[in-house]
Design goal:
Layout: H1 9-23, E1 27-31, H2 37-43, E2 52-57, H3 61-68, H4 72-77, H5 83-97, E3 101-107, E4 121-128, E5 131-138, H6 143-163
Helix pairs in contact: 1-6, 2-6
Length: 167
């Protein structure tokens, strides 16, 4: 744990990997603002290839629609920085890579707002056989800090959802 009571990346990644091994499940990632950092966190544990099958970075809106199947209607009505987009990304990567769980990140890391939404507004989502969840986060800090916090929260949400408990 770090000083804020949040598990560090290595512990968090290893704990999620162990829980996925225990349940016999696999996971994949769909990332926007985190740009592959969540996939890096999930692939860092020895033996991670047994549970982490891959990830997709869909930074551009068009990639979210073409690759992950985010609906054009969602993009038009809610935007890519939205609960709906995060859920569709998680469901889309789960289907694309045929995993039990899909985890997604979308939001505004800065330095400026996007779609009229403020820096630090982030959505992380998890979709899988034991539930679909999404959290809205209002993060603070510079671009790197927001991206890092988003990765940690996405991994914690995945762990909580897979394990069926709060971390």
């Amino acid at each position: 744990m770090n000083g804020d009571g949040v598990p560090d990346e290595q512990v968090l990644g290893a704990t999620l990997h162990a829980e996925l091994l225990r349940t016999g499940d696999t996971v994949s990632t769909a990332e926007s603002l985190t740009g592959g950092a969540l996939a890096d966190l999930l692939s860092a544990s020895p033996g991670a290839s047994e549970t982490f099958l891959g990830g997709v970075v869909t930074y551009a809106t068009e990639a979210k629609v073409k690759v992950l199947g985010v609906s054009a209607q969602t993009v038009e009505k809610r935007g890519v920085v939205s609960r709906e987009c995060a859920l569709e990304m998680a469901e889309g990567v789960r289907a694309l890579l045929d995993t039990d769980w899909g985890v997604s990140t979308t939001g505004v890391a800065g330095p400026t707002e996007q779609e009229g939404k403020p820096v630090g507004l982030v959505f992380v989502a998890v979709a899988g056989p034991r539930g679909t969840r999404c959290e809205q986060l209002d993060l603070h800090g510079d671009r790197a800090e927001i991206r890092h916090q988003a990765c940690l929260r996405a991994a914690i949400l995945a762990l909580e959802t897979v394990a069926g408990v709060a971390v």
